[in-house]
Design goal:
alpha+beta; four-stranded antiparallel β-sheet; 12 helices; 45% helix
Length: 447
Amino acid sequence: MDLLGFLPVFGNVLWTALAFVVALSVIVAIHEYGHYIVGRWSGIHAEVFSLGFGPRLWSRVDRRGTRWQIAALPFGGYVKFLGDANAASAGADDATMARLSPDERRHTMHGAPLWARAATVAAGPVFNFILSVLVFTGLFLWQGTATETPTVGEMRALPGGPGGLQAGDQIVAVGGVPVATYEELVDLIDDQLSAPGVEYRVRRDGAELTVEGPVLYPARAESITPGSAGFDAGLQTGDVITAADGVTLNTFGDLQKTVKAAEGRPLKLDVWRPGSASLRMDLAPRVTDVPKADGGFETRYLIGLTGDFSFAPATEAVGPVDALTAAAAQTWFIARSSLSGIGHIITGAISTCNLRGPLGIAETSGAAASTGLADFIWFIAVLSTAVGLLNLFPIPMLDGGHLVFHAWEWGTGRPPSDRVLNVAMSIGLALVLGLMVFGLTNDVFCP
């Protein structure tokens, strides 16, 4: 066996596993803390707060009598409340409940008022959404927002260099077309500017001058989607695709047209990478279902690259209110797209391969971590929204299933019988396991 050849593979697997465990642990900790803290506020006592399952690796008991622990299997977690028969709070421990006084029963999950139980259950998913909003808010505050007037922050590395453009230049016109906003700049991307050199009218140090610069929207990878054809082929952020099958590409639009025309046929790409010699890569575009801003999905052949201007726009600080508003909108978009995707999968409108299991999520975790801390944090926020949404599904074993039981109790004045609960939990467990197997199958067999 070639051990030296095996080391990079082992390292990648280890990195992927570590990234997955970190992402999952953060999300699970926040989810379970939501259950714990709202339960505590509602007068329900938590006996155990566990991050992970199985044998205890570390634990401590706080002054309220709650045992905080880290267990050996880092693939989830739970809060066990007083009187629970198990970690899922699926039923009461009859022996424990029998020896408790009426006042002590009030501090159990099964003896507390309906409002307290419902609030405690709902808090897990709600805290996942709160985590997403807070993370997105922090990222927007940190990264800032582009200035209203198109202004060069810094020039990106390109094969032909920056030309006459400099950091701080305020762009007044491009190719003879006046521009005052980024929206007007975007409108020029598809209409013109495919020549190797472009004329820019800029305002610099109080004076206007005309300079020649690179194309407005080059065939450059500003970001690469984890798990995409481009990512798997080894493309990196900053790579510029200069040609495909020997045909020169000047703009990102040229690259998009080439990928679309290939219809999945393998392409030979010439790649310029800053600080490296020219590279040649072979990759085949993959059919991808892309969510649309107005809802629904569009199926296209993609290689997973996202482009941007030839310069990084100058930024300015964004206020907390604007950042929070944008973060809430981003969280809502993720949740809405996820629900739309599930609906389209059920109706057969898009491929079932869009539903991934633990291996796919782990692979995406590792890919996001490998592209940078900001991307990994962004991924955690996206995954937190997905976990919160999934837990609200009305499936027994999940928080949404418990809320359905509570709604039944509210409407009828009595909880479901133990027999009904046991049957429902069995069905829920089968559904959850079936969903996991389905996702795992997609991880193995889908491209």
